[in-house]
Write a structure and sequence with these properties.
By secondary structure, the protein is an alpha/beta fold. Helix content is 48%, strand content 11%. Bound molecules: 5,6-dihydroxy-NADP and zinc ion.
């Protein structure tokens, strides 16, 4: 196990009816900007619950943050927050709204052009305090310090991390998932599943606790994902899904182990170039990564196959084949198409993605050996 320092300051407030806690969680003297997305919160009652809880607080609103939050939109929010002298941000939404709000929180304290801290990237030390009411289980943004922002005019999607951007608290009421479109449910299951795989299917780190945690999250998702696709209003399944997604990317399973974010990094380019949903890009790219990197990852692929899917029969090679097939079948069971051609994406994009990583001059993978040439191989595997 590698050395590590762990600290996660976000308070989790979990369960049915917990949105009402907002009144106590935000100091009464704060000038709050409540941020949200395209309006799902108006239809499922979350907006009404937040307004009721904060009826004695000073609350302004900024709606319209889109999936894959857009820099231009967020800069409009920054301007409104400045004008209204906002000193607390409350994100009510999914990863996009929370990420967008983290960007706004950091931009409000940034002197100069905020796009720079995404592009160069530069260290962000300060942010206006923020918190979240989560409405979709997927990204873990509710309990981590990351944020991903898109700029469509430049066809760019970039991220930053800052300790100042951990939410002060996040409210997770599993009943909010009842209104999720099936497509978003599938995206969320896949996103959290891949978060775990990218911190687990590397090499043997002799980190038994982290491995069992990871396998526990994966097994939970394998159970509840398909069940939720059939019956979404199952409180226990929603609770387990929501908690699994948070635990998949809040720093617990990554303590002391190697990480491989190749699938996320390549997937991010597919969203930047073609606007594909984040979860969809991961379901496409991951099988390509493990097919091409199967030798480096053999030990953990065998462990994953055995402990998560119960694959024990056959030679090591056969078991790895079965494990990759089981992973693909799991994604397909959620109704997601997993080939580039399903989305009319071809060689031109493969070339462009490889070119972009060449230009940036860094390789991917837990051993830094996924070069632009290997990225091309990976994408060719999933054509
Ligand atoms: O905008 P509204 O109308 O609210 O609709 C949203 C949106 O269309 C809808 N939705 C959310 N909750 C709902 C609901 N519809 C009905 N009922 C509800 N309860 O779902 C759609 C997708 O929302 P979005 O926030 O985009 O989904 P997600 O949570 O998957 O976030 C994706 C973004 O997070 C980034 C992704 O790159 C992408 O930009 N990520 C952030 C990470 C982080 N901060 O750590 C890590 C991830 O790997 C990821 O990169
Ligand atoms: Zn993700």
């Amino acid at each position: 196990m590698n050395n590590f320092i762990f600290q996660n300051p976000t308070k989790l407030v979990f369960g049915k009816g917990q949105i009402a806690q907002l009144a106590k969680l935000i100091p009464a003297d704060k000038k709050i900007m409540m941020t949200y997305g395209g309006g799902s919160i108006h239809k499922n009652g979350v907006y009404a619950q937040v307004k009721e809880a904060l009826k004695n607080h000073n609350v302004a609103e900024f709606g319209g943050i889109e999936p894959n939050p857009e820099y231009e939109t967020l800069m409009r929010c920054v301007a409104e927050c400045r004008e209204k002298e906002i000193d607390f941000l409350l994100a009510v939404g999914g990863g996009s709204v929370i990420d967008g709000t983290k960007f706004v929180a950091a931009a409000l304290k940034w002197e100069g052009e905020p796009w720079d801290f995404l592009m160069k990237p530069l260290k962000v030390d300060q942010a206006v305090p923020l918190a979240a009411v989560l409405t979709i289980a997927a990204t873990g943004s509710e309990m981590n310090k990351g944020s991903v922002v898109s700029r469509r005019e430049l066809k760019e999607k970039r991220f930053f991390f800052s300790d100042a951007c951990f939410p002060k608290f996040s409210i997770l009421d599993p009943t909010v998932l009842y209104s999720l479109p099936k497509k978003q449910l599938a995206n969320g299951v896949i996103d959290s599943f891949i978060h775990v795989l990218e911190q687990y299917v590397t090499f043997d780190n002799k980190a038994y606790i982290q491995d069992y945690w990871s396998e526990g999250i994966l097994k939970t998702l394998v159970k509840v994902g398909p069940e939720l696709m059939e019956n979404q209003e199952d409180y226990d399944n929603c609770s387990n899904f929501m908690y699994a997604a948070t635990m998949a990317l809040n720093g617990f399973i990554v303590m002391g182990v190697a990480e491989d974010w190749a699938t996320h990094m390549i997937g991010q380019e597919l969203t930047a170039l073609h606007g594909l949903d984040h979860g969809v890009t991961l379901a496409i790219v991951y099988p390509g990564v493990v097919k091409v990197m199967r030798e480096e990852k053999a030990e953990k692929l065998l462990q994953y196959g055995e402990r998560v899917f119960g694959i024990t029969e056959g030679t090591a090679d056969e078991r790895i084949d079965k494990t990759i097939a089981a992973t693909e079948d799991f994604f397909k069971s959620l109704g997601v198409k997993i080939k580039l051609s399903d989305y009319n994406i071809g060689d031109e994009t493969i070339e462009e993605v490889a070119r972009r990583f060449g230009e940036r001059g860094y390789n991917l993978g837990e051993k830094g050996n996924i070069t632009p040439a290997v990225i091309k191989q990976i994408l060719n595997e999933v054509k």
